[in-house]
C-alpha cells in the first residue's frame, strides 16, 4: 500500500504491506496519530523525520523497517511518542527518539546505536542486544552529522522492572542512574 498523504489519524492498518517488492519506500515527514498497525509488513520502509503519536504496532514485520532516519534539511529525526510495540522484531531503529513508549515481548536482537529512550517501559524477555551510549564511533554512525543529530543512545527514566535481560549490554558511557532495572537477576551468557 502506498501512503500518499502526509498525515493519518485514527487509522487501522490490518495486515497491510507497505513494502514495494524490494525497492525502498521513503516516508518523509509523515505524521501518524492514534493509528494501529496490526500484522503489517514494513519491509524496506525508511521513516525520515516522521512523527508517530500514540500508535500501536502489534505483530507484523518490522525487522527490515528503518525506523529512524534524519531529513537532510532541518535535520528532523523520527519520533515515537506514547506508542506501544507488542510482539514485534525490532532491528533497525536508526536515529529515532522513543518517548513514553511501551515495548511488550519484543525481539530486540540488535544494537541500539543512535536511538534514545525516555520514559519508556520494557516488558518480557530481552535477549542479545546492546544499548550504545554517547561515545562517537564512526563505524556505527557513518558520519559526524548523523552523530551530532542523534541523542547518542540516551536512556532516561527507562523501566526494565518487568523485563528479563539476557546477554544485554550497556556500552559507551550510558548513564544508568535513571534506569529502573529488573527485580530478577540479570542473566549473562
Walk me through the structure:
With 189 residues, this protein is mostly beta strands. The protein has one domain (7-16, 30-180). The protein is 5% helix and 40% strand. It is built from 2 helices and 21 strands. It has helices spanning 138-141, 144-149; strands at residues 7-9, 12-14, 25-28, 31-33, 36-38, 45-48, 51-53, 56-58, 66-69, 78-81, 84-86, 96-99, 102-104, 111-112, 116-118, 121-127, 130-132, 155-156, 158-166, 169-171, 179-180. An 8-stranded parallel sheet has the order 2-5-8-11-13-16-19-21, with no helix packed on it. Strands 1-4-7-10-12-15-18 form a 7-stranded parallel sheet, with no helix packed on it. Strands 3-6-9 form a 3-stranded parallel sheet, with no helix packed on it. It is globular. The chain starts with 6 loop residues before the first strand and ends in a 9-residue tail after the last strand. The mean pLDDT is 82.
Spatial sequence of strands, sheet with the most strands: 2-5-8-11-13-16-19-21
| Overall pLDDT confidence | 82
In total, the number of strands is 21
- Helix-strand category: mainly beta
How many separate domains?
Answer: 1
- How many helical elements? 2
The unreliable regions are none
What does the main sheet amount to?
8 strands, parallel
The percentage of residues in β strands lies in 35-45%
Secondary-structure element pattern, one letter each: EEEEEEEEEEEEEEEEEHHEEEE
Instruction: Characterize the overall form.
Output: globular
**Assembly level:** single chain
Radius of gyration (CA) equals 16 Å
Fraction of residues in H or I helices: under 10%
Amino acid at each position: 500500500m502506498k501512503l500518499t498523504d502526509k498525515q493519518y489519524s485514527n487509522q487501522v492498518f490490518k495486515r497491510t504491506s507497505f513494502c514495494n517488492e524490494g525497492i525502498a519506500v521513503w516516508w518523509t515527514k509523515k505524521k501518524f496519530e492514534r493509528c494501529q498497525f496490526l500484522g503489517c509488513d514494513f519491509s524496506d520502509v525508511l521513516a525520515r523525520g516522521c512523527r508517530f503519536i500514540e500508535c500501536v504496532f502489534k505483530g507484523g514485520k518490522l525487522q527490515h523497517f528503518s525506523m529512524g532516519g534524519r531529513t537532510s534539511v532541518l535535520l528532523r529525526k523520527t519520533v515515537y511518542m506514547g506508542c506501544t510495540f507488542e510482539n514485534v522484531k525490532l532491528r533497525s531503529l536508526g536515529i529515532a527518539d522513543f518517548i513514553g513508549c511501551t515495548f511488550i515481548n519484543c525481539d530486540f536482537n540488535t544494537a541500539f546505536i543512535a536511538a534514545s529512550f525516555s520514559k519508556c517501559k520494557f516488558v518480557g524477555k530481552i535477549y542479545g542486544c546492546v544499548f550504545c551510549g554517547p561515545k562517537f564511533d564512526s563505524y556505527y554512525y557513518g558520519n559526524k552529522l548523523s552523530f551530532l543529530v542523534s541523542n547518542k543512545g540516551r536512556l532516561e527514566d527507562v523501566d526494565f522492572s518487568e523485563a528479563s535481560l539476557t546477554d544485554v549490554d550497556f556500552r559507551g558511557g550510558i548513564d544508568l542512574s535513571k534506569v529502573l532495572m529488573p527485580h530478577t537477576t540479570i542473566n549473562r551468557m
